[in-house]
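Lecture notes, unit on binding sites. The following record was shown on slide 14. It pairs a sequence with WT7.
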Amino acid sequence: MNKENIESILHEKRIFFPSSEFSAAAHIPSKDNLHKIHSIANRDFEGFWATQAKTELTWHQDFTTVLDRSNPPFYGWFIDGTLNVSFNCIDRHLEAHGEKIAIISERESGEITTLTYRQLYQRVCRFANVLKSQGVSIGDRVIIYLPMISEAIIAMQACARIGAIHSVVFGGFSAQSLKDRIENTRAKLLITADGGYRGGKIVPLKATADIALAKGCPTIEQVIVLKCTNQSITIEQGRDIWWHEAEANAHDKCTPTWVNAEHPLFILYTSGSTGKPKGIQHSSAGYLLGTITTMKWVFDIRQEDIFWCTADVGWITGHSYVAYGPLAAGATIVIYEGAPSFPDGGRFWKICQDHKVSIFYTAPTAIRLFMKMGKEIPESYDLSRLRLLGSVGEPINPEAWIWYHQVIGRERCPIVDTWWQTETGVHMIAPVPGAIPTKPGSCTLPLPGICVAIVDEEGNPVTSPHEGGHLVITQPWPSMVRTIWGDKQSYYDIYWRKFEGKYYLAGDSAHLDEDGYFWILGRDDDILNVAGHRLGTMEIESALVAHPQVAEAAIIGRPDGIKGEAILAYITLKDIEPLDEEKQNLLIQELRIWVSHQIGPIARPDEIKFVDNLPKTRSGKIMRRLLRSISRGEIITQDISTLESESTLAQTPQSKS
Ligand code: WT7
């Protein structure tokens, strides 16, 4: 084996087939069926996407050009067509499904409200008219800084309706992060709320926004404030207006602004586990098309489904699979404002039970949290309506996958482990659940019309199974990032330069198994170099998580004079009782032997540290980059504004070396 390539060392052999009932009712019911779709896409790539775009989207003016390759890597899709995204998500359902519930919203307090498609239409129209009356027009940027409630979706859809470009900032971000995003987008208007609830406390959104605005942000002319928690806030006359007052006077019809297919729908800053936030710019038509096709292929969405994606609208998942995809597909969605374990660890399962959720989509970090709390909690709820489960955000450790399958899915629901990125817009590699058997820890196979490869440093495909390389996308795809807002050079440098514009570089390492299934090994930056072997983080972490006492694990490399890098493991335990030193030492020995047995002595951690929490981004990704700096005793100079809890920094022990 070429030592310069990454080696895969974990051999997961379990395989799960969808039930015949599931397959029989699915949009894509068999391997043969899926194979046919793939061969159409392989035979005539552009024709395939043209057909999808014509059948799934409602156009104002049809397109004639499918893919514009005149200025790579700045590709354009359906470039001479015009449409409106909000029209596609709302108006076109009104005739047949106007009274169908579009959104079931549960506040942290337990208060529940619903909106039918017709009510959503009226509220979006009214708010679009409010935006217009404040001078917002096509191409203007609007910042949305709201809790996870219906109005966040209304605000996004209203922007889309008038062709304004939104940039949603997650409600947990600081004044500084908000200010950076306002200044980078040069936004004209800010939409926020007095506050929102999380974990029983008020998140003071308006007060934080005031701090951001006091620090700069000269482009902001108006602030629209939603009353959500009723605590007292400061209103600046002439700048701040109340949402409810403005909406009360607004007309409930608003003709959609027809925009070009390539018109930017939104800018979203990436979660930043790898560095400085970048404004990822997405298109209108291609993006929306990707959300609808994946709603069908991967989530197998049907009229009667109740779809709950737990992501906040501050992340791409909350754009593609809350605010746009499910609505474009005419589905009923559930949204929830608060913390997953408020007031207790049963909240998510109570929501699934009460609202009869049939498709549930969450992140591995949440699944590991629930595992830690114990299976007795979900077991006491009626989860019989669930028929499909999904995972996104990080590689899901096989142990967490099996737990999800048994305890939440009751061994009945397929799991779709979806690999994608803010930049890809929608799922790229994911199971088509009625057609593809799944393997715990693998995101399975690329979707139709998505061309993915694993290549070595020279860009040559890695052929032998269990040898890893760079995950690249070899053809443009409709929902792809169009550029980094205001920074074409960085767009090229980050994603295209490595393979000279030929391939899109995802920044993840992966390998294929004998069946051609994809396994994500971790971020390229996190790869370890141990005695000439290049190892991904995912496999060693998964081996540790498989130990009955381990809740979560993060692996990093620490410089080592002999081995190149030594393996350092940060671990959180399921049991919250602290261990005395003797027990800790015994457990360390046991875990080292455990990893040797599970995957081999090469992967055995040299050092193990127990911590209460691992540092994570606000979207739940473990920040190995930060742990690396800490273990090397470096001063932390990197951007930690997206860190979930800065207190984890303080409690992570400094390395003695
Ligand atoms: C990165 C993208 C995708 C939307 C939410 C996160 C990791 C994501 C998986 C998965 C293994 C995954 C990758 C990717 N990732 N999903 N199913 N298996 N890794 O979006 O913040 O842009 O992060 O998340 O490393 O590159 P994002």
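Take-home: Residues 527-651 form a domain with the GMP Synthetase; Chain A, domain 3 fold (CATH 3.30.300.30).
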